[in-house]
Amino acid sequence: MITSSHNECSRMMLKQYYPPEELKSFVSSILIIKEFSEVIKIFPGTGAEIWVSLDAFCMSSESGSATNPFQLIIPRINTFTASPNHSKVMVLRIRHDALRFILPQRTLNYTDKPIALSDIWQERWFEALADSSFKELLDCFSQTKASKKAHFTDDILELLYRNPTKKITDIAKETGLHVRVIQKEFLKEYGITPKRYQINCRLEHVLKSMVLEQDTYRWFETGYYDQSHFYRDFKRYFTMTPSAFLKSNYSFFYNTKTKYPLR
User: Closest Cα partner for 97 from 166, 189, 34?
Assistant: First the structure.
């Protein structure tokens, strides 16, 4: 890890955990920040995060801001900025393929703007998360998923996630769906185009490789034709070059390893 990231991580005592067994179908990992004391930026990606704190904190993006101890963020185009509140914070990372099944409405209604959980759910089940009780979260997910029907966009989402360099025309041939139908329904459900989602997948993949290996020369693994194309996309999405990102105090939030099960 970069020294500055080590210092920031040590100061905020960030740890990442495996979720409890009953949550693994829709929560990929859980981060605990003992004292949230430094600004964190969350960049566009494929999943979502539920932030829970003992005290209210401010989360902002180009589309607005929210100050609340319980918030949902789904960054697809906008970068989010989380302002410190000097309290304990828990971040639950929601799996890309499960997100649709935890939200009461279409995903596009919640993307790129911070939202207080109380503005999404009338029943305040999420308050139990402050005491590290996950039963209410599991009940919410199970009930919402049972009320929703499977949709072909679920399969498209998974295809794009697993094959971020695959052409939409090829996916259309394999699924028997028209390209315009795929694009229209995907945009209607998720709020971004399939192509944009593919770019998010590619950059998310290379970002994980970069912070793991502390090496910016990973663009060739993600389907970019040349380094300049990759650098251009990276700077557009992350507002800095890959080298600058690794040296920044933002990278520590991504440069964590899941080591312990959360009990």
Answer: 189
Q: What is the mean pLDDT of residues 156-181?
A: 92
Q: For residue 94, what are the β-bridge partners?
A: 27, 48
| CA distances for 134 relative to 27, 114, 121, angstroms | 11, 22, 16
Closest by Cα among 156, 125, 119 to 143? 125
Give 231's pLDDT tier (boundaries 50, 70, 90). Answer: confident
The predicted-structure confidence for 26-55, as pLDDT tens digits, reads as follows 999 999 999 999 899 998 889 899 999 999
The two three-digit tokens of residue 14, written as one number: 């960030």
Under the banding of pLDDT at 50, 70 and 90, the label for residue 11 is low
- How far is the C-alpha of 221 from the C-alpha of 160, rounded, in Å? 16
Please, what is the average pLDDT of the chain?
87
pTM of the model: 0.88
Question: DSSP letter string over the chain?
Answer: --HHHHHHHHHHTEEEEEPPGGGTTTEEEEEEESS--S-EEE---SSEEEEEEEEEEEEEETTEEEEEEEEEE--SSSPEEEPP-SS-EEEEEEPTTTGGGT-SS-GGGTTTS-EEGGGT-SS-GGGGGGGT--HHHHHHHHHHHHHS---HHHHHHHHHHH-TTS-HHHHHHHHT--HHHHHHHHHHHHSS-HHHHHHHHHHHHHHHHHHHHT-STTGGGGT-SSHHHHHHHHHHHHSS-HHHHHHSTTGGGTS--EEEE--
Q: Stretch 143-149: mean pLDDT, rounded?
A: 94
- What's the CA gap between 45 and 28, in Å, rounded? 14
> How far is Cα 50 from Cα 154, in angstroms, rounded to an integer?
21
